[in-house]
Amino acid sequence: MLSRPSIAPDPGSPDVAGDVVLPSTATPSADRDTSTRPTFAADYRELGDRALAAAAGMGDRRAFEEIVRRLGPDMLRYATHLLSDRGAAEDIVQDALVDAWRGLRHFRSDSSLRTWLFSVVSHKVTDHRRRRSIAPVEDWVFERPSQDPRDDPSRTVSDADFLSALDDALAELPYRQRACWLLREVEGMKHTEIGTVMALSPGAVRGHLTRARATLETRLETWR
């Protein structure tokens, strides 16, 4: 088992919730029965994902803004890990959130809201990859070790070298292996959730993970 520093979103990443712009055409249409829309006295941050999805599906913008605040950064991290292009990832997440706003009325809770949103992002990433080649992973994607002088300098250098090696190894993985590994190891998803996001069977997910881990173990053998 590889011993590695944690992977996390860039602390300097933009406020996704503040950046998303919903088109005027995405406001609740006449066919939505807004008369049954619930009125929440409690803070939206106290509501669960399913309750927020139900409210947003009926056109509640405040509920959707909370969804974006809560899950938008995860969506941006995932898209950036896959594309290695921060600007493209931000555009894709923006498009995915607009599609989600329009499509939440059809959300049936067969999967978690987070899994459903990641599926939307995955489809956008796939479309983008058909049009462009993948650039090398940017340095900020992986959390760099603290530069606190109290830290052990040799450990700091070692961690930075490991992250650089992991960066290179991930960039060489086939797309589906890379995506499955990121969803499992970075996003902490179960095999069934990964299958939903990637439109793969659980067996196929396990196969991609096995091959990805084998490749990474070989490439990073010196770090074991």
Task: Describe the protein.
There is one protein chain. The protein has 224 residues and is mostly helical. It has 2 domains: 17-23 and 43-131, RNA polymerase sigma factor, region 2, helix turn helix motif (Rna Polymerase Sigma Factor, Chain: A, Orthogonal Bundle); 152-223, Orthogonal Bundle (Arc Repressor Mutant, subunit A). Helix content is 58%, strand content 0%. α2 crosses α3 (61-83), α3 (61-83) crosses α5 (113-131) and α5 (113-131) packs across α8. The radius of gyration is 19 Å and the shape is elongated. It starts with 15 loop residues before the first helix and ends in a 5-residue tail after the last helix. This is RNA polymerase sigma factor. InterPro entries: RNA_pol_sigma-70-like, RNA_pol_sigma-70_dom, RNA_pol_sigma70_ECF_CS, RNA_pol_sigma70_r2, RNA_pol_sigma70_r4_t2, RNA_pol_sigma_r2, RNA_pol_sigma_r3/r4-like, WH-like_DNA-bd_sf. Belongs to the sigma-70 factor family. ECF subfamily.
Largest sheet: none
**Segments where pLDDT lies below 50 for 5+ residues?**
3-15, 23-41, 134-147
The 3D shape can be described as: elongated
Number of helical regions = 9
> What is the name of the CATH architecture of the largest domain?
Orthogonal Bundle
- Give the N-to-C terminal Cα separation: 7 Å
The H-and-E topology, N to C, reads as HHHHHHHHH
Helix fraction by DSSP (H/I, runs of at least 4): 55-70%
Pfam families: Sigma70_r2, Sigma70_r4_2
InterPro entries: RNA_pol_sigma-70-like, RNA_pol_sigma-70_dom, RNA_pol_sigma70_ECF_CS, RNA_pol_sigma70_r2, RNA_pol_sigma70_r4_t2, RNA_pol_sigma_r2, RNA_pol_sigma_r3/r4-like, WH-like_DNA-bd_sf
Protein name: RNA polymerase sigma factor
Region (Disordered): 1-38
